[in-house]
Amino acid sequence: MARIDVVMPQMGESIAEGTLSKWLKKVGDPVKRDEPLFEISTDKVDAEIPAPTAGVLAEIVVGEGQTVAVQTIVARIETEKGAAVGGGAPAGAGGAAGNGAKSEAAAGAPPKAQVATASAPAHHPSPAPATAASSAGASATAAASTFEGRLRTRSSPLVRKIAAEHGIEIAALSGSGLAGRVTKRDIMQALEGGARGGRTAPNAPAFAPSADAGYALPSGWDGDIVEPMSKIRALTSEHMVNARRHAAHVTSFFEVDLTRVARIRAKQRAAFEQQTGEKLTFLPFVIKAVTECLKKHPMLNAAHDGRNVIYRKQYNIGVAVAVDWGLIVPVVKGADNLSISGLTRSVNDLAGRARAKKLQPAEVQNATFTITNPGVFGSLMGTPIIPLGTAAIMGLGAIEKRAKVITGADGEDTIAIRTCAYFSISFDHRIVDGADADRFMADVKKTLESFPETAL
Q1: Residues 444 and 347 in one domain
Q2: Under a CB-based contact definition with an 8 Å cutoff, are residues 48 and 39 in contact?
Q3: Residues 430 and 315 grouped into a single domain
Q4: Which of these three, 69, 86, 113, is where a domain ends?
Q5: Residue 212 annotated in active site
Q6: Count of CB atoms within 10 A of residue 75's CB?
Q7: What is the domain extent for residue 54?
Q8: Which residue, 203, 161, 179, is CA-closest to 72?
Q9: 431 CB-near residues (< 8 Å, 6+ apart)
Q10: Is 136 in the same domain as 41?
Q11: Residue 95: other Cβ atoms inside 10 A
Q12: Within this chain, do residues 403 and 448 fall inside the same structural domain, yes or no?
């Protein structure tokens, strides 16, 4: 008999921890190799994790809802079916009963140093004032040279970027992450709270109003249902507030006549779907037009690092996908190199795997421009929030037939039925002027209204 450890996988280079959100098997269940075993949530994506081997789930070490470091043992599989099953804690029993010390030690250590550092403290109870970040000097440098200090400075690229923009020494802060690791929540609280900096409760979001915010926080009334946010909802909330805080949002609207695209789609749809096996929608046409126009208007395919404008030479288009448990934005990498059929395959594949929780973190990272399509739900227009690290996001309204005044062949005005939609562009006014955004949108409109039939 042999027992195989199942560990929390590293779902991306910058991801140091994950939350085990749901067990798909219980102790004693047989499992097949590569069969979904549990679900995890990270700050990038939700995903199902397959079993590394076939056998029987003998022990559950980490319970549902726990957040642990990558490479932490979360379960053990007995490789011989029918072998005696060990007494693991049930998934919903609030954690790793009987294994708490082991899990805490593993959570506080990097993957290759779990045993050697099992006695390292996992928390730092003394909050560090945000004002100390600029005056910590030698003490911060000394802290950074310790094991715990090195863990804190191994924060995510976003945390390091925010710290650099505001002159904050990460090693001087007391983090709420694993082993005192400084998180986005900690750095934002340090910026907003001044001398009140330091740790918050583990589940307290960065955007929660403080007690002295000037108004009372809402509370449940008789008959209300109060439930904690899901992992993805909490992360989405945090990302949206941070994104709104860090960009100067402006939104402009254009009406686009999609009659030509609709005719091309109707004419070639049957042959296209028979040939490719993919459903042809309007979205690939829009992505194609957008990528062409981004090359003419590079400021829309840019980012702002606090001091400089970064003009991206890759054209990675994020496409917002609504799922039952929240919102995910998978990214079509190198969209400028794909045809309509290639874009269709890529979008359909990413959207399908997003709904099935099969995306990898790399597939939701490094977008240079984003498109969201609330029009599928009937929305006419909106003002979407610009994702962090980009300069703009486009919103697509409902596509519908409208009566429009057009100029006929003889030069006289006439009323015709046209297929139209409202497009919005939210842009970061720090680096994109209104004229630039409007020129870009005018080119997108022109490209779609004169789309070539041979593009498929």
Answers
A1: yes
A2: yes
A3: yes
A4: 113
A5: no
A6: 27
A7: 3-113
A8: 179
A9: 299, 302, 304, 309, 391
A10: no
A11: 20
A12: yes
Return the number of other C-beta atoms located less than 10 Å from residue 256's C-beta: 23
The torsion region of residue 424 among left (phi > 0), alpha (psi -120 to 50) and beta comes to beta
77 and 126 belong to one structural domain: no
Asked whether residue 219 is assigned to any structural domain, the reply reads no
Q: Is residue 223 part of a domain?
A: no
Query: Is the same domain home to 240 and 271?
Result: no
Instruction: Give me the CATH number covering residue 294.
Output: 3.30.559.10
Tokens of 156: 């995510």
Q: For this structure, is 249 an active site residue?
A: no
Instruction: Give tens-digit pLDDT for 402-442.
Output: 999 998 888 899 999 999 999 999 999 999 999 999 999 99
Residue holding tokens 């917002």? Answer: 320
Would you say 393 and 384 are in contact if contact means Cβ atoms under 8 Å apart? Answer: yes
User: CA-based Rg of the chain, rounded to a whole angstrom?
Assistant: 26
């809402």: which residue's tokens? 218
In angstroms, rounded to a whole number, what is the distance separating the alpha carbons of residues 6 and 74?
6
In this prediction the pTM is 0.63
Domain final residue, candidates 44, 79, 113: 113
The answer to whether residues 59 and 160 belong to one domain is no
Pick the catalytic residue: 433, 436, 438, 443?
433
Q: Does 39 fall in a domain?
A: yes
> Rounded to whole angstroms, how far apart are CA atoms 103 and 97?
10
Reported as half-sphere exposure (CB side, CA atoms, 13 A), residue 444 has a value of 29
In whole angstroms, give the CA distance from residue 36 to residue 90.
Answer: 18
Distance of alpha carbon 23 from alpha carbon 60, whole angstroms: 9
- Domains contained in the chain, number: 3
Of the candidates 166, 429, 436, 438, the residue annotated as catalytic is 429
Q: What are phi and psi of 197, to 5 degrees?
A: -55, 170
Return the percent helix, strand and coil in the chain, to nearest 5.
35, 20, 45
Each residue's pLDDT tens digit, 113-163: 333 333 333 333 333 444 433 444 444 444 444 444 444 455 666 677 677
- 3-class secondary-structure state, position 302: strand
> What token pair was written down for 264?
């091309």
> Looking at the structure, do residues 89 and 235 belong to the same domain, yes or no?
no
For residue 35, the Cα-to-chain-centroid distance in whole angstroms is 25
